[in-house]
Design brief:
5 strands
């Protein structure tokens, strides 16, 4: 399955499927930069409910990380999903997703652009198993919220 292209006004979900650094105070400035840059592209960022709960909480609650991805796929208004950053334990979300028939059906019936890299490879493999074409590419913090006056040219 190939998701549709983004258009101005489309909503893009931001999920923290691994390291929950986006919710830390030290990362607040990057959150603001990244949100503004998405808005400058004409997109509407939607930070998923658990994505800002911080490193400790998200490490201890992979089910919360999985719930955010499920909610993003279930919401027909969201057209794309971008991972906040990689990490090292996104594999813990997979049983909460692949064993959830509602999630599986949402992916199949509502394909969306999905992007991220590094530890997110686990999620790419899971979604590819469900026949969704994904994009091994930009993450929110590293690629959209770099600390500079402008985004990196690539």
């Amino acid at each position: 399955m190939i998701p549709s292209r983004l258009e101005k006004g489309d909503k893009i979900a931001i999920v923290s499927l691994s390291l929950g650094i986006l919710g830390e105070k030290d990362c607040r400035h990057e959150l603001e930069i990244g949100l503004k840059r998405l808005e400058d592209f004409g997109l509407v960022p939607v930070v998923m409910p658990n994505s800002l709960k911080g490193v400790k909480y998200l490490f201890e609650h992979p089910e919360a990380r999985a719930a955010d991805l499920k909610e993003a796929f279930m919401n027909p208004e969201i057209k794309a999903i971008i991972c906040a950053i990689g990490g090292d334990d996104t594999y813990k979300t997979i049983p909460y997703l692949l064993d959830d028939e509602e999630f599986v059906e949402a992916v199949k019936n509502n394909p969306k652009i999905f992007t991220g890299y590094s530890d997110t490879t686990n999620n790419h493999l899971m979604l590819n198993k469900l026949w969704l074409s994904t994009f091994y590419g930009p993450s929110f913090i590293v690629d959209l919220a770099e600390l500079d006056n402008e985004m990196l040219p690539y």
